[in-house]
């Protein structure tokens, strides 16, 4: 595709990004513009004041990196790759992953399902402008949707570049989140990945000399989860917002067309507005107990507190890292290294990666309570200290 006209977007992470007039039409669509008002890290801004960046700039950064991958690795169907990279998060609801599970319980959709429907103009998104724009620039909406959902057999490589063990999505968000949170541990060397990546059997692999870079990415990923993504304060803020959303779930039948501002307005003007005000003023549930996780203690702690018949909004019991955050695919340690034309699992050849994986199996139970109930809950849980 040849274009004479471009626009430049000044990205604080990647510098000036050139966007063709055709792709500018996707950026200008109402569905994509909504992402300007959806925070990348949900309630993390209550802990890291700079974490006000959005899915909008992350998506543009992901497209920028996808173009670099396409040019370096000589990937066919470059426009399809770039469009899928740009639109991979178009289905995110307000506060992104922070509320995704509660919205999925209400609607039956996660952000990928919603994004696919937006891209194809299906179901409640039949008025989406994105399908016609994609067709105008010579792309089939279904191809883009299948790439994002990972269901495309024809374009498996493109799917893996966008969402795989080493992908452009993560290469942008780790660096972007690190920059905005003021936590430099996520500042990985993405250019080195470009230099050591290659296509093998229609999939991405990393040359053996790139092993230290892979290890550094895993270190950054795990440290960012521990320091930022699983921070106890942002998690409890998200938990409190989830409770309010569930109490007003009739207002959130199509959250994938809403912004953070829409969400906050509904909560601020709902029947639980005083509770929402506490969250905004950072008057959060207070952590009162932290112990190593085991299933028996978790059940006992839960039953002990429930026996007191406290209002569920007065306390919370969390497990960090979450129980569903495990396995090589979830933490993306299923990376492949090319050694003498043979693919080897990075876990098998790197003791460091094995140790990092094991570190995420060390979980803690954290109990939070409303300040006026803190002493009561402490007394209930005396035996666990």
Report on this model:
It is a single chain. By secondary structure, this protein is an alpha+beta fold. It has a domain at 6-182: Hypothetical protein af1432. The chain contains 19 helices and nine strands. It has a four-stranded mixed β-sheet. Strands 5-9-6 form a three-stranded antiparallel β-sheet, sandwiched between helices. It has a two-stranded antiparallel sheet with strand order 1-2. The longest helix is centred in the N-terminal third of the chain and has 19 residues, at 55-73. The chain starts with 5 loop residues before the first strand and ends in a 5-residue tail after the last helix. The relative contact order is 0.11. The model has no long low-confidence stretch (mean pLDDT 91).
Output the keywords.
385 residues; Hypothetical protein af1432; 9 strands; globular
């Amino acid at each position: 595709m040849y274009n004479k006209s471009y626009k430049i977007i000044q990205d604080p992470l990647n510098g000036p990004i050139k966007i063709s007039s055709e792709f500018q039409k996707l950026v200008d669509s109402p569905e994509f513009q909504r992402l300007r008002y959806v925070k990348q890290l949900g309630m993390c801004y209550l802990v890291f004041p700079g974490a006000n960046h959005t899915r909008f700039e992350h998506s543009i950064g992901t497209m920028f990196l996808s173009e670099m991958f396409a040019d370096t690795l000589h990937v066919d169907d470059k426009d399809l790759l770039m469009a899928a990279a740009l639109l991979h998060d178009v289905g995110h609801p307000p506060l992104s992953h922070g509320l995704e599970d509660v919205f999925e319980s209400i609607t039956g959709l996660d952000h990928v399902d919603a994004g696919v429907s937006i891209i194809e103009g299906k179901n409640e998104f039949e008025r989406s402008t994105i399908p016609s724009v994609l067709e105008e620039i010579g792309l089939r909406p279904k191809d883009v949707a299948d790439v994002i959902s990972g269901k495309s057999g024809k374009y498996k490589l493109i799917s893996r570049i966008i969402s795989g063990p080493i992908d452009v999505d993560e290469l942008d968000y780790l660096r972007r989140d690190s920059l905005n949170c003021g936590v430099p541990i996520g500042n990985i060397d993405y250019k080195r990945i470009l230099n050591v990546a290659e296509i093998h059997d229609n999939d991405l692999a990393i040359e053996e000399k790139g092993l230290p870079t892979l290890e550094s990415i895993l270190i950054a990923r795990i440290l960012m989860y521990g320091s930022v993504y699983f921070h106890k304060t942002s998690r409890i803020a998200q938990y409190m917002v989830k409770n309010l959303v569930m109490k007003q779930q009739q207002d959130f039948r199509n959250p994938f067309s809403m912004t953070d501002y829409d969400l906050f307005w509904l909560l601020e003007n709902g029947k639980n507005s005083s509770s929402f005000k506490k969250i905004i003023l950072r008057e959060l549930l207070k952590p009162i107990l932290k112990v190593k996780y085991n299933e028996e203690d978790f059940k006992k702690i839960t039953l002990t507190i429930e026996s007191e018949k406290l209002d569920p909004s007065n306390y919370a019991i969390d497990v960090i890292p979450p129980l569903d955050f495990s396995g090589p695919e979830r933490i993306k340690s299923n990376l492949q290294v090319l050694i003498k034309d043979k693919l080897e699992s990075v876990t098998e050849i790197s003791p460091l990666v094995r140790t990092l994986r094991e570190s995420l199996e060390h979980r803690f139970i954290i109990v939070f309570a409303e300040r006026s109930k803190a002493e009561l809950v402490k007394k209930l849980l005396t035996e666990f200290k």
